[in-house]
Amino acid sequence: MFSIIQSMWLTFLHAFHKRETIQYPEEKVKLTTRWRGRIVLTRDPDMGERCVGCYLCAAACPVDCISLQATEDENGRRYPEFFRINFSRCIFCGYCEEACPTYAIQLIPDFEMAEYDRQNLVYEKKDLLIEGEGKYPGYNYYRVAGLAIGGKKKGEAINENPPVDVKSLLP
Amino acid sequence: MATLYIDNKPYEVKAGKNLLETCLGLGLDLPYFCWHPSLGSVGACRQCAIKVFKDETDTRGRIVMACMEPVADKQRISIAHPDAVEFRANVIESLMTNHPHDCAVCDEGGSCHLQDMTVMSGHNYRRFRYNKRTFQNQDLGPFINHEMNRCITCYRCVRFYRDYAGGRDLNAFASRSNVYFGREEDGPLESEFSGNLAEICPTGVFTDKTLKEHYTRKWDLTMAPSVCQHCSLGCNTIAGERYGELRMIANRYNGEVNGYFLCDRGRFGYEFTNSDLRIRQPFISKFPVTKQQVLAEVATDIKKGKVIGIGSPRASLQSNFALKQLVGADRFFHGVSDNDHNIADLIVKILKEGPIRVASMHDVQQADAVLILGEDLTNTAPMLALAVRQAVKQQPMKKLAKANIPAWHDAAAKELLQDEKGPLFIASINTTKLDDVATATYHAAPDDIARFGFAIASCLDRSVPSVSNLPGELQSLAQRIADALSNAERPVIISGASSQTQSVIRAAANVAWALHKKNKNTGLAYTLAECNSMGLALMGGHRLNSAFDAVMNGHADTVIVMENDLYRHGKAADVDAFLNKAKKVIVFDHIVHRTVEKAHVVLPAGAFSESDGIVVNNEGRAQRYFQVYECHEPIQESWRWIVDISKFENNVGMGWEHFEGLTRTIAEAEPLLRDINRVSPPASYRIAGQKIPREPHRYSGRTAMLANINVSEPKPPVDPDSPLSYTMEGYKGLPPSSAIPFFWTPGWNSVQSVNKYQEEIGGSLKGGDPGIRLIEPNLKSTLSYFTELPEPFVPMKDHLWTVPLFHIFGSEELSVLGDAVAKRAPQHYIMINALDAAEQKLSENQELAFDVEGQLYRLPVKISTTLPKGLAGLPYGLPGLPNVELPAWLIYKK
Ligand code: SF4
Ligand code: SF4
Ligand code: SF4
Ligand code: SF4
Ligand code: FES
Questions:
Q1: Residue B465 has pLDDT above 90, yes or no
Q2: ipTM surpassing 0.90
Q3: Is residue B672 helix, strand or coil?
Q4: Residue of B nearest to A87 (CA)
Q5: pLDDT > 90? residue B641
Q6: Ligand 4: does its nearest atom lie under 6 Å from the Cβ of B228?
């Protein structure tokens, strides 16, 4: 009996609280940076495409809505030839972001993606790739990887010694 | 048998093996790198550490390398002991100190033994803060990519490449932590087995370069068990598809056939399936038409015309039979040259009616004396050459038992045996790559090789007609070979179709039969021209020239050619005349060639990756390849086209609808193919009510890969022909051995997981090795020796006896249509002996005009000191080089 009265009282008090309802869309929703919304592909600090086409995001995706094809430029840099996310399937779980070894794929605080035609929810790379680093500034996968790419020869990555001279006789 | 206690649990195990393979064979997980079942142990990586205890009371034990320690009875060991676990974690951590941060861009990732072992050993976080060593890579040619930073110095690559495969141009360089595995300088790897490095290397140092062109992770491939289509050995493969395109071929273990390896033609030849030359649509008079139109056209043609059908040695039994059924048995012709036809018939006769069981590749590996007559195996049946390389180790290995060294103890065995080689004798037209391990070689014209074979046989058994006037040193060589073969426990004779000479094949049979009288373990193996040459030979059918005659004489006017370029089997002029005379030429094929260009109607057939079929290898082993992916309409198997045509024509069909019904019909109709019903499990086969998935459970992108076309995913295709599903849903455990789409077990993502599929490590697959042998010997054989001794070869003035020379890359029709293999194919040439060249005043590369059987050639000369005088070598089957039936006389044209 007492608990029912207590609940009614608490509910009644809410009538005097600040309103939670906002006048969307006139008024915008405030989202934290950790909000898992629209997915983007970001660039590294040199403005190169961050995605290296490793397929980990696709493998991690529980609804299998990411598909891509890796390819390579003339200097050995890997990037996705196409990158497609079917947002009509995406559940915004963020597993892809967690799986991504390069910080390329990121979920950002934006949910305004509704479409009348479901087909329009299929995003290609041109719809996903942004001109910036997103939430994780500074990281450049190719600077820590051992693969040589244009502008970074063997031994020039972070924590690397210059290439071994195989023919040297020195001990 | 011995009792082994592992972590206090008793196991009954086979004595004599090492502890590592024993543990793995029991299904236990123990990390390792340098050991490989076919290479043995060297104890180089220190990853397989375990504890061995003196007895029950011993609690401290000592750490040993499991791969270096033989099983002893009542032995107590521990994999889980904290000391061993820590030791292994430390080893992997130190191996990883120099490892690049590459998994994301490494083609090995997802099927990487190093990844698996790192996880298994529990090394999660990098503690080493210092710099990493780096290396420059090399360009190793079109097949293999090199990324040396990823090396963990297990030495598997060089042990395979040099010790196992006999290659010379890959080696370890430099010292201490700078050891480098590569070539002396950039350049294509010379070994024909270099592709195996991609599987042997536990890391991403050596990877498949053709896969890199359209890279896909293993977990994203749709895979199916397949059979190599590029020579008669029928190596088992796994074919993987993504986005409607075949992306890689990997080894599929078969203990009796190819074991752990494939040759480069088999591994990289798949690229033809993605070639621009693919026929993807039906054509009538070169105009693309719909499926209905082409069916209507062909149905009318068949109704109106006098039809004959020409089959193919590279098409499945199913397709060949369907054609035979469509046109009628007496109007079905084997699409091979008459010489090939006769040779295949002869081989079948020898193997079926003779007393000797055909030697499988595994048997050849185990042989302790080998005689090769007339074959350049490296170029005609590459994996058999690899088997012969193992056979020469058998005789010396007998010493190991005496010295108390187990055969798997590779380092010790090598130390004891050094470079010692067992008996291998090669009689061939020109030098072969196997000559470097041969005891003695003899290079001569095919007829002389046959005579030499007869001489060996007559040394073994006096009732074989002897060969008179053989030069003294040859006679004594024949005697030496006869002695070596008689002294062996498991001698094997190898010959084949490539010398295009029946007497060579007869000679090989004589030797084997003579030997068999003394030793029932004698083996005999013949190689044939193409992947289903044997199957076609086991199926009745007429000779190609009779087909030509039938049209020329007006007995037939409509020709159906199935998956066959007749210009590879007949003389260009004859084929031209034949195709021009025929009123209607209907061709089923998957690739454009000269015959297709002359066809009135073309139907797009599925390549092996888009088809279900059975082919019979040189051993008489019927093996099934499964469709890897649903082909794009309207591509389909030739046999499916045929059933469609027959349905269109009279609405009754052929009496079968799918693969199974067709296979049953073949088994009933063809006495020699009776057993092909048992080759693969029926389409209704289920394990725990489930199909076998073609896709690994991590397969990605299902709801996105076709979303650009339509956001609603299509229903997955159904497979009416096999118990395999086109999706990742299905039974996750071990499938039956003949239907393994890929090797994977929990924690073992790389190909090393094959350990878990085997009855015993390096032995047969669980449930028996795939394939059904159709040819069993006649133990009560009454065949008597062949007596047709050919005349010795006598050079003719101003003429050269022209023989075909084979090239692993180039001579086979399909593989050479892929980019990678094409890059390794030789230019056109005519090879002649230096003495003949001097006589004719010809210098290297000078153009020579000549005529063989009325076919004109103009080719650069290649001068050889090994090709016998009076002979000329014409490369076989190179694209653009006109075909003539060889051997034949060459006449110089001025
Ligand atoms: S995980 Fe990251 S780097 Fe890898 S494919 Fe996805 S987005 Fe690209
Ligand atoms: S070899 Fe294996 S562990 Fe090393 S980078 Fe490649 S995938 Fe990763
Ligand atoms: S290249 Fe590969 S196989 Fe060779 S030593 Fe290094 S890791 Fe081992
Ligand atoms: S040996 Fe023959 S069957 Fe085996 S992989 Fe090579 S080409 Fe294919
Ligand atoms: S596998 Fe035993 S030491 Fe390498």
A1: no
A2: yes
A3: helix
A4: B704
A5: yes
A6: yes
